[in-house]
Amino acid sequence: MPLPGQRPHGREGFFNNLTHLGLTSLRFIQPMKSTILRRAVMILLLAGGLSIGPVLAQSSGNATMTVNLADVLQLTVNTATVTLNFATPTDYKNGVSSSVPNQISVTCNRAYDLKVRTTTATLTSGANTIPVSNVSAQANYTGQSAANPSVALSTTDQSLATGVPASISRQVNLNYSTSAGNQDFLRPAGAYTTTLTFTAVAN
Hints:
Elements: H1 10-20, H2 26-47, E1 73-77, H3 89-94, E2 97-108, E3 112-118, E4 122-125, E5 128-131, E6 136-140, E7 151-152, E8 158-164, E9 167-177, E10 196-202
Antiparallel strand pairs: 1-2, 2-9, 3-8, 3-10, 4-5, 6-7, 6-9
């Protein structure tokens, strides 16, 4: 209840003011009350984050994706030299070996076989020769299921590994060795050379 001399506040005051102004007919006040209520409800709905618009149905479409794969096969020789040193009597007695880590790398989208051959039948130093078959080569790589065989070098392709899984830049280590007490190496001192050729063949 307002004090004497004070005008009522809130809704009561609002409608009393209308009375004071002579605007108390139901034809005016009732529609105004309805409009005020509708606006209040609208404000509450919007403030609550409620959607009052129509709900749209979902729409979808399809597209075709194509991935084209070409066969690739690349062999890279990372280390182009191999050296076996006979420097002491023990070397001639026990044989020597030389490991070349990551000598070759292969990228292939399919399984492949790895082979090696020499361009000449002998290691040559001037007029002196040693048959290349006195040197063996063995390949190994990370993840292989079993040890690969050690093969005697030859002018025909020798299988270093078969069914090597498809890979990107697979690093292959090579180990070269000679047998103990091999008298074919009893030759005049010198650097005996040949050329190795590595080949990868896709399956």
